[in-house]
Design the sequence.
């Protein structure tokens, strides 16, 4: 019996373009200079029956340098990672840590209760729990069995 294979032409095209690019230019190296590089924390958005949960990786930030704002179904996380005090006696040969402001705007998948939102910070992870409004939770309908 023949096995069916899923054909994904765009993925195959992308792999082929990457292969040709790598053969022609060689493997790309991480940038040596980060000028103009803007950063934003990685964010996970998940949904349970009761709430929408947002987790953002913000290591090195102080909680007082993070602002969380909810407007309708849009959550905004804003913050700033401040550079440490520069030591004049040090000669830097490489600086890869990124500093500066960021802004993440996330469209939420359900309506939430703004007055019940909770945000916590632990080990560099900001966790925001946004309880759903009653109408957004949905209602299970029990099926009656007729005999």
Sequence:
């Amino acid at each position: 019996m023949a096995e069916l294979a899923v054909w994904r032409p765009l993925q195959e095209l992308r792999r082929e373009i990457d292969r040709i690019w790598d053969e022609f230019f060689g493997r790309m190296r991480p940038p040596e200079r980060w000028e103009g590089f803007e950063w934003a924390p990685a964010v996970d958005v998940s949904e349970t029956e009761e709430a929408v949960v947002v987790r953002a990786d913000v290591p090195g930030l102080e909680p007082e340098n993070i602002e969380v704002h909810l407007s309708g179904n849009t959550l905004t996380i804003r913050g700033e990672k401040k550079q440490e005090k520069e030591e004049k006696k040090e000669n830097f040969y490489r600086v890869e840590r990124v500093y500066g402001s960021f802004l993440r705007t996330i469209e939420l998948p359900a309506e939430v209760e703004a007055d019940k939102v909770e945000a916590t910070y632990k080990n560099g992870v900001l966790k925001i729990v946004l309880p759903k409004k009653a109408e957004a939770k949905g209602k299970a309908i029990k099926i009656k069995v007729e005999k």
Q: What stands out?
A: The domain at 37-86+93-136 is CATH 2.60.40.790 (Immunoglobulin-like). Strands lie at 43-47, 51-57, 66-71, 74-81, 100-107, 118-122, 125-131. The mean pLDDT is 81. The two ends are 45 Å apart (CA to CA).
